[in-house]
Structure formats: structure tokens, C-alpha cells
Amino acid sequence: MTDFLLELRSEEIPARMQAKARDDLARLFTAELAKAGIATAEIVTYATPRRLTLIARDLPVETAAVSEEVKGPKASAPPQALEGFLRKTGLTREQLVERDGILFAVTEKPGRATAAVLAEAIPMIVRGFPWPKSMRWGDASTTTESLKWVRPLQGIVALFGEMIVPFEIAGIESGAATLGHRFHHAGPITIGGAHDYVDKLRMAHVIVDHDERADLIRDRAREAAMQAGLALVEDEGLVAENAGLTEWPVPLLGQFDPAFLDVPPEVIQLTARVNQKYFVCRTSDGALANAFVCTANIEAADGGAKIVEGNRKVLAARLSDAKFFYDTDLRVPLDEQAGKLAKIVFHEKLGTVADKVDRVAKLARWLVEEGIVGPAPSPLRGEGLPSSAAPGTAPHPNPLPEGEREQLAALAERAARLAKADLVTGMVGEFPELQGLMGGYYAAAQGEDPAVATAIRDHYKPVGQGDDVPTDPVTVAVSLADKIDTIITFFGVKEFPTGSRDPFALRRATLGSVQLISRNGLRFSLRQVTAFAVRLAVEQDIQLPGFDIPFAASDSLWVTLEKFKKATSGKPVLDFFADRLKVQQREAGVRHDLIDAVFALGGEDDLVRLLARVHALQAFVTTDDGANLLAGYKRAANILKKEGATSSKAVTPAQAGVSADGAGQEPRETPAFAGVTNEAGVTEQIPLSYTPEPAEAALMTALDSAEPRATAAIAAEDFAGAMAALATLRAPIDAFFEGVIVNDPEPAKRTARLALLERVRAAVHNVADFSKVEG
């Protein structure tokens, strides 16, 4: 068994392409050798700015003989089909093998020298390599047949053991010689084989292992900062990028003018990182220090003093630009900047950014005025949703004195009207990543209320799982309004996300809304908020064909809400929120079937209350009472399904085998009553026409007790209490199935007992649809 070494040396490979290039080289090499029947035991790949390397361990010296089989026509096929197959394979009829009436062409291929296989495979790999971007060069670049590589290819090392594997690509012949570090080592290096490749290049000041270079950069950068009494700001992305830019990394610490620290620290860090690939440092108290760490690619004779000075000058120029942008932006009030948003199109169907800002500001104010967003999370309780009966009529979940509520609403509107103003500033134009953040700095410097500045800074949050979720009321109002407006308007113009596309980040906006709602305990009807957002868009004469509802700008909120509730076209928005909530809860460890069991009830659009149901259900079904009640429920549901009883409504007295006045009943010692749900959905106590079995009567009694307690607990939003009440049905249900024949020959008994099981199912369905629960 022999090792194979391949090095493809070129001009600088971009750092961002190196990791994938290593994976692609290993994948293509494995595939090409597999065609020749060669299995690779171990493959190691390396990448530096100037070379892409592969070492394959323990390859056979020769390939084994292989037998190739090609399926042909049936033995009874027409002569024309047989002649065509013979021409294709180059065999005669006598050389074909017949099995089960099918002809096969079987050819034996003798073993080959692995070196010969490699000599054919490597040029194919190089010519078909999938670089994200590549180039042609030299005289041959005038033709499309010339070699394309990420940068001009300069040399190839190909050694099988200690033997050169001979081939040529675009005039470059394979050999055993490579080059070391561009400055530290002059002249070629002769490689003996895979066994000494890494060590010989290290002696020539080239560390070929990316991970080793990354470890060196990380450790020495920390050490340089520590020696200066500072702490390095960790940045793994920057570590990886510097490792891809150097073959012999040497981290060096430098300092810049402390006057630049007047610029926000995020600006300094981003300037150093994006433009120069520098690390930044912090002082012992956590403040940004006027220090940076650059990564040189050379061991300088002066210890790096000139390198540091050169990098300091370049960074100073960049920071001067940043300070200019910052100082210039500060001189323009945010109100004036916001005025420029009317010239920026948000979306061709949704108007300008100024139009969006106006909608968001009104929605943010309304969220506070309605008491949806307040100074503290709303407790889960049974007083109802804000304005659930009609706008402005129900108590606010977070009651505030009128003056305080108005002040909070004004702050929310002010923050929303300034939140997008920094989009037209010079700083955000240079660094789009700083939008929101810079607006917060400018608002604070220009004397805005601290709550307004904070809301401007954080209104994009949360932008993903793990991001901070705002809790300040003003920030929550603006952030939620911004996200809901985005979702509603894009759904309204039918810009729906698909499985592979979400160009307007509606999934992220919805998940962010869910996080804001659940983290802050916001109690509201999602339909109502959606309807208000739709109304704001209609007031701007924006056409929303995605809803297909005859909204009018003159409609009151109540009319708008009623139209929205009745419209099936509004359902996709609510379903989209439900899907995102399911994703979030599954990632939080909640069973998907329990989420489905609560969603299956339908009509629930208070996400906080919905989640409370889900979590209470998850806690309940893991108990013995929960498991047993589930089993009893499913037995009852299966019987009802078999008998065609699918609804818990409108069970008439006649269907239940009862008499309203008891007339015509046989005398009995103990009167019995059945709880029957009438057409209005109200349970009536009506005398049975027969004497129930003891277990039947016990279940009736248990239901008479459990149903009102569960209903009261649900009304009080005490879902754990509702399930505890239902748990008392466990033993009576078991006893009922053991001692009572449901499908009794007497129609009155059979119908009444099915009605009793329907009561059981209906009682359980008040909490969740247990048919969706697995187990």
C-alpha cells in the first residue's frame, strides 16, 4: 500500500473559498478512483493562500481486475435490436451471456497500475473543479478551451510513494518540486513524498494545516493583548479568515489615536474587522481600547514595528472616514433624515419607506393605547382579551393611568417615526450592518428620550434564534409593529414565502413576533391586530388582493375586524403564525403532537394562552392520570367513530333515549338523569327511560362534577386545573368500559350510552383535541 500526494499551487486563493475547495477536492478524488475500483482508506486535505493539497493513504499499487456487465435485449428480441447491442459492445452473439432469457455483455478488465489511473484522474478533476469564481490567464485565455482555475495555476506536485505521477495540464507538468514561503524561503523545495511534505514546508516557513494556523493566531493574539493589559475581543470568523490569508501567521499588537474612541465602539470594531481584518481589544472594565491586533505573514527583523506602523496608518485613515460620517450625520436631526425616506421605494406595491414608517408608527401607538403593550408582562388570567368584544370596550391587560398610557403611546409613535431614519445616513450607507444601532446613537446624542433611543437601536430584534428579545415597552411596541406590518402587507400583495424562497424574510419576522409575544406575555387577539394593520394599509390606498376583502378606508375598526373574521382569505396569515409557533416550540422541546392537539381546537389566536394550554398539556400527559385518561378517551372516541357519532353538539333527548317529563317510563327505585347537549350547545339534565348500570351512573356523576370544574378552570385560564378536574374521570371511565355494554341490544340504552361517551369526548376537547395526541 502506498500514499499519494497532490499539491496544486497557484496565486492567492481567497480565504472564503478554501474550506469548500478542500471538501470538493476530496469528494472528486474519491469519486474518480471509485470508477477504477479503488477505495480510499484515508484522505487528508490542506489549504493555504497559495496551495490546495490532498494526501491519500494506503492506495494499492495496482487495481484489481474487474468484470463489467451491460444488460442487453431479451434473447427473443428482433434481430435489429440484437445487432444494435452488438455494435454498441463490440462483441459477437457467441460472446454474450444469457440469464433468464436476457442477454448480457460481460467483459473482463485487467488490473492497472494505480499511478496510471491517477495520471488520468487528476487532469479531469482539475478541469472540472467547481470553484465559485474562476479565471483564465495567459495567451491561452483567448479560447474557451483554456484551463479555468480560481487564480493562475503555477505548479503541480504529484507523487505516488516517491514516484512522480506524470501528466500535464495546460502546459504545466507534474513533478516533485514546490515553493516555500514567498519571502522567507528562496528557490524550490523537492518533496520526497507524502511522508515529508508537511515537515519540509514547515522548514520553509509554510504551515499547511489551516487548523494549526488558526490555533496559532488565536493563542498569540490573546497573548499579545494580555501582555498589554488588555483582553482580546474573540472573533472566530476573523480567526478563520486570517488563517486563510497567511502561510506563516504572526499576530502583532498596535495602537491607534484614542481620539477615535469618540466614535461608537461598534463602528470601530466593524471598521477594523471588515476593512482590515484586525481584532480589537477591551480594557479591564469592558470598554473598547485604542488597540488592535493585525496578523502579519512574515517574521520581521524589527519584531514587526514597521508592519504595525503601516497598519496603524491604514486603520487611522479608515477610522477618520468613519469619524467623518459620524460627525456629519450627527449634525442632521433625525427628523430631517426621516423626511428623505419618502424618496426611497420600500416595495413597488407597498409605497415608500416613509409610507411604511407611517403605518408602523400608528400601529405602535395603537398597541400601547389598547393596553396590548404595557410596562409589565400580562399574567395569564380569565378577564378576556383587550377589545375582544368590540374595540376599546374590554379592560386593558396592563391597566395604566390615562396620562401614563398616553405618554407611553407618544414615545412609541415617536420612536417608530425615527426608527428608519438612519437608513439615509452616511454611516449606514458605508456599513449597512449598523442600521438601527446608529439611529440609537444619533437619537441619544440629539436629546431624544432614552426609551426612544433604545427602541430605535433594538427595533429589529430579535433577528434570529438566540438573539436578545426586547422587553422595554416602547421597544416592544415598535419592534412588533414593524414586523406585523411587514408580514401583513406582503401577504396582502401575495408575496408569500415558498419552500425555497423567502426574499422578504417573512419567516424571520413571524418568528421574531412570536418571540416578542411569548417573552413579554402580550395578550391580544391576533385577528384584531392583523385587521388593524390591514386597515392602516387600506387608508394609504394600498391594494391588498391577497385578502380579497372589500375593505374601505372609511370603515371603523370594528367593521374591519368583522370583515376580516369572516374572510377565509385572512386565514393564511394566521396559519403562517401557527406554523412558526410550532417550529419555535418544537425547537424548545415541546412535542409536535401536543402542539397539534391544541391548534386543532381552532379559533385560538391569543398566542400566550395557546402556549399555556400546550405546556399544561405536556405536563399532564406525562403523568399516570394523563396517560390513563388518554387511553380512556381514545377508547370512547373509537367507539363513537365506529358508530358515526362525530359531533358533540345537538344531541336531542330522543336520540339519548330520555323523556323530558318522564311520561311513559317504567317505575324505578332511583331516578336517573342524563346530561344531554341540546341544539344550543347547553347540557340539560333529563330523566333516563331506564335504570343505568352502577358504573354508568358513576360516570354520569363524575362528569356532572368534572365538567363544570374544568369549564371554570378554563375560563380562569387555569389549564393545569382543568386537566386535574378531567383526571378525576380516569377511574369512572375504566369502570364504565369494564362493567357496561355500550352497544346494548336496547336502542334507548345504546343511544344514551353513546351520548355519555360523547360527553366524555366533549369535556376533554374543551382543553385539547386528544385525538391528535400520540400514545
Key features of this structure:
775 residues, alpha+beta, Alpha-Beta Plaits, 4-stranded antiparallel beta sheet
Task: Describe the 3D structure.
By secondary structure, this protein is of the alpha+beta class. The chain has five domains: 2-63 and 114-203, Alpha-Beta Plaits (2-Layer Sandwich); 69-107, no CATH class; 210-316, no CATH class; 336-589, no CATH class; 610-772, no CATH class. 46% of the residues lie in helices and 13% in strands. The protein has 26 helices and 20 strands. The strands form six sheets. Strands 1, 2, 3, 7, 8, 9 and 10 form a seven-stranded mixed β-sheet that branches. A four-stranded antiparallel β-sheet has the order 13-15-16-14, sandwiched between helices. β2 and β3 (51-59) form a beta hairpin. It is extended and about 105 Å long. The two termini are 55 Å apart. 40% of the residues are buried. Residues 381-397 and 646-671 have low confidence and may be disordered.
